[in-house]
Specification:
single chain; mainly beta; nine-stranded antiparallel beta sheet; two-stranded antiparallel ribbon; 1 helix; globular
Length: 167
């Protein structure tokens, strides 16, 4: 066997087995997602309402994603651009502080403020962040709400959320 063939064989054997091919990239964040789980912090109760589902729709729009949120199901349908905040009187204006929704990424994030009442100095500081999990079949994250305004910390809460991709 020629010396060059022996050297080639040695280099192939020393390199070890070929790595397995990488899986094809999934659809990423683009798609329609429905909320299947929502819990306070470590709470045991699932607060997601299957009768009035909350749905996120993420569509590619250039370098970013256009994100819409729908809620209420068939009884009280409501569709708004995300991030959005709705109380008993309906949608409230949001002041966007930070918004990250890259079309090629695996996560979205929004920080925004909401004034629930003109008669109070209360301001809700909200951060929502979600990332792909389970091989792209789920979108999991949290919604953290802090009650601010005035001169003192007024508390807050965290909701842990899990969305699943709709076909």
């Amino acid at each position: 066997m020629p010396l060059s063939a022996v050297l080639l064989l040695i280099s192939v054997l020393a390199a070890g087995p070929s790595p397995a091919p990488l899986p094809a990239p999934g659809p990423g964040l683009a798609g329609t997602w429905t909320l299947v789980e929502q819990r306070y912090e470590g709470g045991p109760n699932n607060l997601a309402d299957p009768e009035r589902p909350l749905v996120l729709e993420l569509l590619r729009d250039g370098l970013e994603l256009a994100v819409r949120i729908r809620g209420g199901g068939d009884r009280d349908p409501l569709e708004l651009p995300w991030p959005a905040f709705v109380n008993d009187e309906g949608p409230l204006p949001v002041e966007i502080v930070e918004l990250s929704r890259p079309a090629g990424g695996d996560r979205i994030r929004a920080r925004y403020r909401v004034r629930p009442s003109d008669a109070s100095d209360l301001v809700l500081e909200i951060t929502e962040e979600y990332a792909l999990t389970d091989g792209g079949r789920a979108l999991a994250g949290r919604m953290a709400v802090r009650f601010t305004g005035g001169e003192k910390n007024r508390g807050g809460y965290v909701l842990h959320r899990r969305f699943e991709r709709l076909p």
